[in-house]
Amino acid sequence: MSTEVPYAADAELSLSYDEIEVLRRQFQKEEEEGHVTTQTKFNYAWGLVKSPQREQQVLGVRLLQEIYKSEPKRRRECLYYLALGHYKMGNYEDAKKFNALLIEKEPTNMQAQSLETLIDSSVAREGYIGMAIAGGAAALGTLLLAGLIRKAVRKQQ
User: Fold this and answer.
1) Mean pLDDT throughout 134-155?
2) Who has the most CB within 10 Å: 44, 65, 117, 125?
3) What is the 3-state secondary structure (H, E, C) of 65-92?
4) Per-residue pLDDT tens for 64-85?
């Protein structure tokens, strides 16, 4: 069995509702039996992080954080999917933090390097959007101010 995990770009693909439902049912079955295995919890969290729905991603991240705290042997996998989950939710600062921890432990990890590129691109894109919004607001403010000044000048004449 291969232990290789997909590059971050591949991880962008979402699981279908049916695939997530299979993982959820297994998780709930074990929960009802009184003990959820770490593997089942991880699989469910992994599926939720890969969901296109934010509320599922949030739950996936929460489950991964629980595993990270309680299962030291699973931290490497958790770091990556915590970073991915935060990235997909737009929490780029948290995504960078978790991904940096993984890169610190595994500097040649191609998956983490790929995710770092995605995170950095998204941060840059958000920065450009923010600058465009700020620029547009400033231009609108200038036009409104100019209009008010013209109106005031006309009233004085």
Assistant:
1) 66
2) 44
3) HHHHHHCHHHHHHHHHHHHHHHHHHCCH
4) 999 999 999 999 889 999 999 9
